[in-house]
Amino acid sequence: MQVKHTNAQRRSLLRAASVSAAGLSPAAARWPGAARQARVLPLRAIPGRAQTIVDRFRKPLAFRQQDFDITAFGAKPCKTRMVEGYVAHHEPGQVSTPVPDAPDCYGAIAAAIAACSQAGGGRVVIPAGNWLVKGPIVLKSHVNVHLARGAHVYFSTDPDDFARYGEYDCGANGKLTISRWQSNDCLNYSPLVYAYGQTNIALTGEDWTSILDGQGGVPQANGDCWWDWKGKRKPGPRQQEAQNVVNQRNPASVTAIAPGLTAAQIALMEGKDDKWRTDEAFLPTLSEAGVPVAKRVFGRGHYLRPCMVEFIGCTDVLLQGYQLNGSPFWQHHPVHCTRLAIRGVHMDSMGPNSDGFDPEACDTVLVEGCTFNSGDDCIAIKAGKNRDTQFGPTRNVVIQGCIMNSGHGGVTLGSEMSGGIEHVYAQDIEFRNAHWATDSLNTAIRMKTNMNRGGFLRHFYVRNVTMPNGVALKPQVYTPLPGSPIPNRSVGSSAGAVVTIDCDYAPTADNVRTRPPIVENVHISGVRVGNVKTKDGSFSCYQALLLLGPVAYDYNGPAGAEILPIRDVTITDCDFGNPVNVAQPWFVYNVRNVKLTNVTIGGKVVNTTLSA
Known about the structure:
Layout lengths: L10 H4 L20 H4 L9 H8 L11 E3 L10 E9 L2 E8 L7 H13 L3 E5 L2 E5 L3 E2 L4 E5 L3 E5 L12 E2 L5 E7 L2 E5 L4 E4 L2 E7 L5 E3 L49 H8 L8 H10 L20 E4 L2 E6 L2 E3 L6 E4 L2 E6 L2 E4 L13 E6 L2 E4 L4 E3 L12 E7 L2 E2 L4 E6 L6 E11 L11 E6 L7 E12 L29 E6 L15 E12 L2 E3 L2 E3 L3 E6 L17 E10 L10 E4 L1 E11 L2 E7 L2
Parallel strand pairs: 1-4, 4-7, 5-8, 6-12, 7-13, 8-14, 12-15, 13-16, 14-17, 15-18, 16-19, 17-20, 19-21, 20-22, 21-24, 22-25, 23-26, 24-27, 25-27, 26-28, 27-29, 28-30, 29-31, 30-34, 31-35, 34-36, 35-37
Antiparallel strand pairs: 2-3, 9-10, 10-11, 32-33, 37-38
């Protein structure tokens, strides 16, 4: 077996790997971790293609039976203290962090992984105790990095520590790593746990006392923390250091980075103001302009936070049985990976953009027995953005036996899906929404795209899910483009519906809107939504369904593009409880053949077909 090239067109930069999986020990140990603890719902048999996906994970990964304890390579535990920081995005509180003179275990962990790899593989063990790591943990083929019970890894809060060890020396920007930031390729700060082009790798824990801590809300000596880079900073000298503020290091014109563009292309990319020069908009502009990744240099002087765990171009991957806290950005972001399982992982990070699990352009993925307390979507399936679609679609994903509490969306597809998403199966999930009174789950089943993200979303199946505490009872309305046929602040597309299909997601965020999305063949059954008691009555949601198809007005590409409605959706044998807006239980725009069969809303059974 060989690992596929991560990007053949950029092979000289990305250094694609080719490794053999031969010679593995048939007696290698399994790593059950905490998966059995998390599986609270009985898993039903899945027919057809979905069962074939699950069957591909029946044979466990195998590793040589040799342990490499990091203390044998010089690692020393540290003491910790409590300091003032953020427990959630701009929610102050006491947080644990290593004391100022704590020893750094980066070198010891790197040496243990290197020795393990050179020996042919095995298990790198991080024992019980507190460990400070001032740099990334980089996995290699045939290595399982395992956290013992009671092991707590604290990653450094200093961004410079993740611009020291990358393979690409970018001068003042640091030694950087090939990464993806919101589905666009770049050279940036290293993810805190990283692998590139490897095969047969694992990150495991003994139980949920095995903790990876990104310290996203813990301040550095200067008072700054990772989460501040999102924006909404307190007034002061560092207020401009954020991803959503114009960065003067970015050029004043697109022509400086792509001189071959026409005047019309430049006008489209730059739009009517200079917000394209913010780091979060500059990177997708580089993609639109066709700038190669070698010239998409961020790192020091820029404010794109790294993911906590990011694996790119890897095959046979296991994530299992640990807890993850305080992610700087997305918690788990596998890109272009094949046969990846995440089991029994407790994701608890309430920072900005703290998506729990975001598989992107991956094939054959199993998510099982995980719990999510997320500052953004719990699961968000991705597939590239703008012109970065070289890895193709995400396909063949099974999600089962999971619990979703806080988050923007529970099971979400998009919004970065330019390469397409297909064959996703979700079943036996409890959208528990335990914090409904203070930090509600916004929506449970969510699909989102727009005229920039485009792509296709098809063959999405959801069945047998429960929502004992419903979802958000208040809508979060969106702002359409000026002149849109959708009235301003009239559609609660970001929160309040149990099922949300939003094909006009954040239209004001993108200057280039040339890719009409396609959403079709979505099948949802067996949804049971409970009510919660409020001072105004018992309610389950604001609306049962929100189906906002592509808005043709938003398109600004060449004439003649086909803009299709949301189509061929079935919702069967569901009870949506008692919506606040029971008089208008659904919103539909540009949809065709949405069939409701034996659907109960507000105590009334509905059998109808929606088109608009």
